């Protein structure tokens, strides 16, 4: 575990020196492909814990990418602390996978829309199109 901590600290120092973001991935895999272990008794990090660690290191800009679970976690913190997030960017793939439980039994034939069209409707963005044949 000490080796992982040292590797993480070194990576953070290099990223900070190069004015680059330091990214923690769900799979504990770094961008260069090396793998770090995740403790079995605590496999997930809380948004608040990560925020505190990022702030303590002087990092002021972070991109969070994930699915329904991480998005919900961030939005829950934002509902309590309106200063938590400054911007939001939502990218929607024209692919229907359900919620957290999803429709895993359909893998890899998730229903997809193609071709996709996008339109603004007041404050909403609407994505629409015909269902494409399974891939």
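Q: What amino acid sequence fits the structure above?
A:
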């Amino acid at each position: 575990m000490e080796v992982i901590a040292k590797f993480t600290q070194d990576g953070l120092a290099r990223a900070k020196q190069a004015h680059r973001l330091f990214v923690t991935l769900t799979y504990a895999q770094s961008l260069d492909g090396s793998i770090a272990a995740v403790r079995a008794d605590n496999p997930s990090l809380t948004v608040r814990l990560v925020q505190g660690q990022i702030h303590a290191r002087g990092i002021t800009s972070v991109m969070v990418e994930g699915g329904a679970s991480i998005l919900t976690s961030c939005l829950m913190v934002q509902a309590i602390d309106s200063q938590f997030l400054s911007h939001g960017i939502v990218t929607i793939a024209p692919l229907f996978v359900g919620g957290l439980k999803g429709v895993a039994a359909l893998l890899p034939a998730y229903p997809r829309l193609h071709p996709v069209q996008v339109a603004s409707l007041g404050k909403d963005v609407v994505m629409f199109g015909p269902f494409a044949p399974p891939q």
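Q: And what stands out in the fold?
A: The chain has a mean pLDDT of 69.
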